[in-house]
Automatic annotation (TrEMBL):
This is Alpha/beta hydrolase. GO terms for molecular function: hydrolase activity. It comes from Sphaerisporangium aureirubrum. Keywords: Hydrolase. It comes from the Bacteria. InterPro entries: AB_hydrolase_fold. The keyword Hydrolase applies.
């Protein structure tokens, strides 16, 4: 009989105030949902992760459990709010979840990075196998070398892109010339200007991609400068000591401007024109789309192309565990080059690349294709 239970998991302190809710912060816990077949002894557990999405109700959990493995969906400390997210703390959360599953008797752990969880899963496994990180990109202490992270036995990149900083930069609008005035635009770098396409010429795409990297780097440099400047803003506290703000929030406009959203000849697949949030032009400025509100420290850890560590292209070459990459031919968020790039990055032959024909990012209207993904994961686990 399939059962579902809510797992409380001890949360390692991140050392800073980056969770708004006092209830969540003071509880000292994160949470996961565990689906399992009570008629089977503990064996293999599949853990599905993402930095900020609530995977407690993930669509694959019951399907996986019905195939004879236990399936857990994790909610990190940043569930539903990535504005102050620190990737290194997400690694600690994944580590705590794997440790809890081991304590429950599961001998084999398959770590699944779904969507934006791909970069996190790759970073976790790399650090669990060979821990090196002692500080965040902003310089805050977060010692993964002493965190006793337990490596997963296998890794799955499921409908995943290589990392939030990568896909974010690929959607960062380079036509914005003033970070405070999103509609003051450089027409020569505007994918929404009909004079440029679609279709987009190779020369335009090349300039566009470089300008995206340049904008990301400018924001990263500015974030470091602002963190340094904050150190001068000390004041005397009521208790007589010194206090200083150590982070600030800011807005990033234009984050859904990937030319692939409008030009299907770029990175060709079966996808439809558009984004996960609808029209690219609207999603580019819509608060609910990707990464418009962040903080200085979170930007460096989560969105900075140069400084974020959660990049599967960079992490997978050192990973020793077997790696399965599952992609959808109609996915408009994780593109064919992402899947191929992650597969090629794996530094050994215990790897597999699977494409599910017709599957979009969320398998909308196609539970049969979601079931096919679960079949691949369970077959791989066995």
């Amino acid at each position: 009989m399939l059962t579902r239970e809510l797992l409380p998991i001890p949360m390692t302190s991140g050392g800073r105030l980056d969770i708004n809710s006092g209830v969540a912060r003071l509880s000292g816990k994160i949470w996961a949902t565990l689906w399992k077949d009570d008629r089977r002894p503990p064996g293999t557990a599949v853990l599905i992760v993402h930095p900020a999405s609530n995977f407690i109700g993930h669509y694959a959990l019951e399907e996986l459990a019905s195939r004879g493995v236990a399936a857990a969906g994790l909610a990190t400390r940043y569930v539903g709010n990535d504005s102050a997210l620190i990737m290194e703390n997400c690694v600690l959360d994944v580590g705590a979840a794997i440790r809890r599953l081991r304590e429950l008797g599961y001998e084999k752990i398959v770590l699944v990075g779904n969507s934006g969880g791909g970069g996190l899963a790759a970073l976790y496994q790399a650090q669990a196998e060979n821990p090196t990180i002692t500080h965040t990109p902003a310089g805050d202490p977060v010692d993964l070398t002493t965190a006793d992270l337990i490596p997963a036995d296998q890794i799955v990149m499921a409908m995943a892109h290589p990392g939030r900083a990568v896909v974010y930069t690929e959607g960062l609008d380079p036509a914005i010339v003033d970070e405070h005035r999103p509609f003051d635009r450089d027409p020569g770098l505007d994918m929404f200007d009909p004079a440029n396409g679609p279709a987009y010429a190779p020369e335009f795409v090349s300039r566009y991609r470089q300008a995206q990297l340049d904008r990301n780097r400018r924001i990263s440099d500015w974030a470091f400068q602002q963190i340094e400047a904050l150190r001068a803003r000390t004041r005397r506290s009521p208790s007589g000591g010194q206090e200083v703000p150590d982070d600030l929030p800011f807005v990033v406009h234009g984050t859904a401007a990937d030319p692939r959203f409008l030009d299907l000849s770029l990175d060709p697949s079966d996808r439809a024109v558009g984004t996960l949030w609808g029209s690219p032009w609207v999603a580019n400025f819509q608060p609910a789309s990707l990464g418009h509100l962040t903080s200085l420290r979170s930007w460096l850890s989560q969105w900075s192309h140069e400084h974020s560590r959660a990049n599967a292209y960079r992490r997978l070459p050192g990973v020793k565990a077997p790696v399965l990459v599952v992609s959808g031919s109609a996915d408009c968020a994780a593109f064919p080059s992402h899947a191929r790039g992650m597969y090629d990055a794996v530094g050994h032959d215990r790897r597999e690349l699977v494409e599910i024909k017709g599957a979009d990012h969320y398998f909308q209207g196609r539970p049969d294709l979601a079931a096919a993904m679960c079949d691949h994961i369970v077959e791989w686990a066995r």
